[in-house]
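lol so apparently i was supposed to do this last week
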Amino acid sequence: MTRHVIAAVDELPPGTRKFLDIDGRPIAIFNIKGEFFGLLNRCPHQGAALCEGPLIGLAQSSDPGEIEYTKLGEIIRCPWHGWEFDIRTGQSYCDPKRFRARAYPVNVEPGTAVVKGPYVAETIAVSVESDYVVVDL
Ligand code: FES
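anyway here it is w/ FE2/S2 (inorganic) cluster bound
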């Protein structure tokens, strides 16, 4: 597994998404309320660019006439036939046992851990022997 640096956190504010091609795979990275998630940009139904669809919520009902709208901005609706998937898991709400969008783990890491400058100064080993600082060239 190869790590890929996607963007600085500031470049992807909550409610936005970024489209990428990683090793030939179309992927979208979403910032959902400060959490980051990745989805393959291909609908498991008939292959539409799933991640170009609108972000919506989930209508749930526990009793007739009582509808609760949850997961606001966490569900993506496919632009072709309207199937809906949970961005956090890739789960389909149309047929959860058969269809699932491919989800990818996304982490936020400190810049010092992933972004190093392009130039490296030559370093020289220095040691202390008795009371003398010694450099080996
Ligand atoms: S291709 Fe996505 S719902 Fe049909």
